[in-house]
């Protein structure tokens, strides 16, 4: 069982992990209390740690991105072949995979017109802000429309400007001051309605209130609105069907570009290729990353409608139109191997019917998770496709959250049963009280059952 790790020297690696590696988003003291898991291999949904323990991964790599599952030789082969032929040329020049991939993405998003590549979700979103801001200086009809609205509980990335547009206030802590021009709008989680209303009698106030905010800010100053179609890290928040059409109508009335952040929801995660395709909405821009190459390689894109691209032909400061362009660049936006990875990733999804499997297995997963509502600490179960959340509460009526220690204990108890579960927000800032399920889209019924059964036992271990 351990043969696959013997070459590494287990103690040496554990020491190196403790002494050299700065782990992302993990308390620095963690090594003092517990040996940390080191992952060495993966196949399908199963990962194996350095001690030879196997886990069923409900998180697609911790941050919902390994959509086609682990161990895909054909992606590695496609990347190797592309790198051997042509590894890189700057994004100011086309390469065979960048041309093919942009064409493929536009085939999948029929109302979009152009694709701009970069290499992380944060960057893809930042590009959309730069497009909105540059448009507000070069297009006389958009002059001064520099403000960007973002939603409470949504997250759009880690660098300072995209963090300025994070609705998760806890992530902003310690990093200010932030650039100005980012304005928060309410979230749309019915379970904890920000207006204290109840659907369907609420008149979808969360969406309608956006008009008041635009009027308060001044319509002449608001250029864009960014939203996750289904909020990921903010608590698996799924808007009601009426939400997006209302938002879209308000955006078009006030000339506000609607940007949909598909970094998590894209590429089959929610049972359609893109999350926004569940709703009656037609965004001006869509941003992609994570599942785009199932994180085998870092690749992202900002996909825009043709009218956005064409705005850059209207620069009055450049009447002879020789120098008009989006003044942005991204070195690794020209990496050819990552695009080969994405093309092969999309081919696999189509050939194996993984989006359909996400829908079918997602329905099954949601049904099984709803059985957990029989446990008094399960307050709400929500999901679309293979993207589900189970929000825990210590009292159903008041919806009081469990403690951090209790939540951590649940995840540990589930892990002890061989399943890696994630934890995320519940629309309550800073409290990770929603268990989430975002497994690879290749999941089987039997694997769904194992995840749910382990969760039930884990919850019962902690809460009785
Ligand atoms: N948008 C959303 C919805 C995300 O969840 C994330 C990351 N989890 C990002 C953007 C940022 O992506 P990245 O970490 O690749 O910069």
Automatic annotation (TrEMBL):
<dbReference type="GO" id="GO:0005829">
    <property type="term" value="C:cytosol"/>
</dbReference>
<keyword id="KW-0663">Pyridoxal phosphate</keyword>
<dbReference type="GO" id="GO:0008483">
    <property type="term" value="F:transaminase activity"/>
</dbReference>
<dbReference type="InterPro" id="IPR015424">
    <property type="entry name" value="PyrdxlP-dep_Trfase"/>
</dbReference>
<keyword id="KW-0808">Transferase</keyword>
<dbReference type="GO" id="GO:0030170">
    <property type="term" value="F:pyridoxal phosphate binding"/>
</dbReference>
<protein>
    <submittedName>
        <fullName>Aminotransferase</fullName>
    </submittedName>
</protein>
<comment type="similarity">
    <text>Belongs to the class-III pyridoxal-phosphate-dependent aminotransferase family.</text>
</comment>
<keyword id="KW-0032">Aminotransferase</keyword>
<dbReference type="Pfam" id="PF00202">
    <property type="entry name" value="Aminotran_3"/>
</dbReference>
<dbReference type="InterPro" id="IPR049704">
    <property type="entry name" value="Aminotrans_3_PPA_site"/>
</dbReference>
<dbReference type="InterPro" id="IPR015422">
    <property type="entry name" value="PyrdxlP-dep_Trfase_small"/>
</dbReference>
<dbReference type="InterPro" id="IPR015421">
    <property type="entry name" value="PyrdxlP-dep_Trfase_major"/>
</dbReference>
<dbReference type="InterPro" id="IPR005814">
    <property type="entry name" value="Aminotrans_3"/>
</dbReference>
């Amino acid at each position: 069982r351990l043969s696959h790790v013997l070459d590494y020297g287990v103690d040496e690696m554990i020491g190196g992990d403790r002494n050299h590696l700065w782990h992302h988003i993990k308390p620095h003291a963690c090594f003092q209390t517990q040996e940390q898991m080191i992952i060495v291999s993966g196949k399908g949904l199963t990962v194996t740690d350095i001690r030879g323990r196997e886990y069923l991964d409900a998180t697609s790599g911790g941050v919902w991105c390994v959509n086609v599952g682990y161990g895909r030789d054909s992606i590695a082969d496609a990347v190797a072949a592309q790198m051997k032929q042509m590894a890189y040329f700057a994004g100011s020049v086309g390469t065979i995979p960048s041309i093919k991939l942009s064409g493929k993405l536009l085939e999948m998003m029929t109302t979009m017109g152009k694709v701009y590549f970069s290499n992380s979700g944060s960057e893809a979103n930042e590009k959309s802000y730069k497009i909105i801001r540059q448009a507000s200086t070069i297009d006389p009809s958009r002059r001064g429309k520099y403000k960007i609205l973002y939603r409470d509980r949504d997250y759009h990335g880690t660098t300072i400007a995209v963090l300025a547009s994070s609705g998760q206030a806890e992530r902003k802590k310690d990093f200010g001051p932030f650039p100005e021009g980012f304005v928060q709008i309410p979230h749309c989680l019915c379970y904890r309605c920000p207006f204290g209303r109840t659907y369907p009698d609420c008149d979808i106030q969360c969406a309608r209130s956006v008009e008041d905010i635009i009027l308060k800010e001044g319509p002449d100053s608001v250029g864009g609105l960014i939203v996750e179609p289904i909020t990921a890290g903010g608590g698996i928040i799924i808007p009601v069907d009426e939400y997006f059409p209302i938002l879209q109508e308000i955006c078009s009335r006030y000339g506000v570009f609607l940007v949909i952040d598909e970094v998590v929801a894209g590429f089959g995660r929610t049972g359609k290729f893109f999350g926004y395709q569940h709703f009656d909405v037609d965004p001006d821009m869509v941003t992609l990353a994570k599942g785009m190459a199932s994180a085998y390689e870092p690749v992202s894109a900002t996909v825009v409608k043709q009218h956005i691209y064409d705005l850059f032909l209207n620069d009055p400061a450049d009447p002879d139109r020789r120098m008009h362009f989006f003044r942005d660049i991204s070195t690794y936006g020209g990496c050819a191997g990552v695009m080969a990875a994405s093309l092969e990733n999309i081919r696999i999804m189509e050939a194996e019917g993984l989006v359909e499997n996400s829908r079918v297995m997602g329905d099954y997963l949601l049904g099984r998770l709803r059985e957990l509502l029989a446990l008094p600490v399960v307050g709400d179960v929500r999901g679309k496709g293979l993207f589900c959340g189970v929000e825990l509460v210590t009292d159903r009526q008041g919806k009081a959250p469990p403690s951090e220690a209790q939540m951590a204990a649940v995840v540990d108890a589930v892990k002890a049963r061989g399943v890696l579960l994630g934890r995320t927000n519940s629309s309550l800032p800073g409290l990770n009280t929603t268990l989430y399920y975002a497994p690879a889209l290749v999941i089987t019924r039997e694997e769904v059952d194992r995840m749910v059964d382990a969760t039930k036992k884990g919850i019962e271990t902690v809460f009785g």
